[in-house]
Amino acid sequence: xxxxxxxxxxxxxxxxxxxxxxxxxxxxxxxxxxxxxxxxxxxxxxxxxxxxxxxxxxxxxxxxxxxxxxxxxxxxxxxxxxxxxxxxxxxxxxxxxxxxxxxxxxxxxxxxxxxxxxxxxxxxxxxxxxxxxxxxxxxxxxxxxxxxxxxxxxxxxxxxxxxxxxxxxxxxxxxxxxxxxxxxxxxxxxxxxxxxxxxxxxxxxxxxxxxxxxxxxxxxxxxxxxxxxxxxxxxxxxxxxxxxxxxxxxxxxxxxxxxxxxxxxxxxxxxxxxxxxxxxxxxxxxxxxxxxxx
Length: 294
What we know:
The longest helix is centred in the middle third of the chain and has 15 residues, at 94-108. The chain has one domain (4-293): Alpha/Beta hydrolase fold, catalytic domain (Rossmann fold, 3-Layer(aba) Sandwich), CATH 3.40.50.1820. It has an 8-stranded mixed sheet, with helices on both faces. It has 11 helices and 8 strands. A hairpin with a 4-residue loop joins strand 1 and strand 2. By secondary structure, the chain is an alpha/beta fold.
């Protein structure tokens, strides 16, 4: 599938790179990826499983990653300052990222979609459901949280990754991706490290902007706690979380499901902050069941 681009998307008039799979006449499923991760973080074979179940799948690069618009002229993000309460280096928020995503739906002529967000992508999907409810047919929030700092915390081993040196070439990017999976990934499942290296090298060739990742992280923290707004949602919701997630503690998933009325909580034993192939069928079946209910 060739990457396409939509120009002048949303109020910020950004360019969004995206790919579509399946029949546009089928129900639309929009996949929203996490911080610093390009659209190919949703593996081709995972998308194919969803298409085989009768869904029209769209994946895309959020602003500041991949081939979508990067905010190179923005202030240098200071995550520590934002955590301490000074949001002056936040150049945008989750509402802006949500508006980009709704703008992409407009560009594709999609009235409303089933939303699936992973990690920070879950924050964005939740924000779409809150701020643009007519555009959300259902919500799947994966390995994500509510924005409440008392839940979904990073474990010490996850915090350590911020001290790692940044890669300087595609080979180093591949090895760093493997190290990330070994640190943050699912301890109960096997990993295809060859595919992980290949995907990281592909991402390096498309873009490597470490400040873009930081700008997204700052946006997430600066946007605050969504819990009370989540309590007012009225749409079919699935919350998926691994019990061994060190990047976003499972308490974040539990809190998300508790906040959204009627939400289904799917906890996967031994799953970390990744999507190991062995869990794909279970997650796909849960998403398909949600779409049918919605």
